[in-house]
Known about the structure:
Layout: E1 7-8, E2 23-27, E3 38-41, E4 45-51, E5 54-59, E6 62-65, H1 71-82, E7 90-96, E8 100-109, E9 115-125, H2 129-138, E10 145-147, H3 148-167, H4 179-194, E11 200-210, H5 213-222, H6 228-242, H7 248-253
Parallel strand pairs: 1-3
Antiparallel strand pairs: 2-7, 2-10, 3-6, 4-5, 4-7, 8-9, 9-11
Helix pairs in contact: 3-4, 5-6
Amino acid sequence: MAGIRQVISTLTSEGKELMGPDVLAYHYPDNNILNGSLLTVESNHFAVLKSRGAILSVYDTGQYVIQTPDRPIIGAFQQAFFGGNSPWQYEVIYINRAKLILEVEGIAYSKEMAEMGYHVSCYVHVDSKDDALKLVQHMPIAGHYVSMKEVNSYAGPVIEQSINRIVQLTELERVNEKMPDIIELVKDHLQEFLSVYGLTLNDVKALVFPKDQRMKELIALRAFGLSEVDAVRYYTAMIMAQNGIVSAPNMAVGKPYFVGNPQMAIPGSGS
């Protein structure tokens, strides 16, 4: 309707926010953005205005009237060819500036080639208007959203390489001792990589663990100070006890188990 400004926002008509904690960027899905439209930028967002592929401006929190220097030419072009509505003449991309969670899981291998799982959680955010510009320039937007799941696919190989660089040179039992080194290496490599996309890395939390349940339990027994042989013996005794085998205590202490009269089972007793 003539005389009413179009309002560009991340809120739906019902007031629902479209950019949740799993959305890094949102491409406003309307090809009727014209000069004079009112652009609303929430307190935890940046907004990037593009025209025919060129970036015109980056906006911080507030409300802005969209104006460009070539308005008369565009206006005549719109009226002549599109009846006043030029498709994708202007585009608005919203950038989430809140702290978001990047999560990556994968497989690494210890020095003995034992399979190790890892789970890495990182907090990232877009810090400034310049960083928002980097994100739009370097992060491809397929459709109208860039989700954190897509960012995970970018960061995954960097994290995998960083973890394997240490884990592959470390014995299975000593991997946990190397966790501070692993986290520092992930931080260094990941921040260098993410900075290209305008993302700042705030914190990294990582967990590396044996994938095989049997190895987890053996390592836990070794943590009590048992030797390798004793750990295997106690583990076997626990399995036997779980299955109701009465000789489980003998296995644990390394003593033979006799059925019936033990004297009859002793070689050379003369009976």
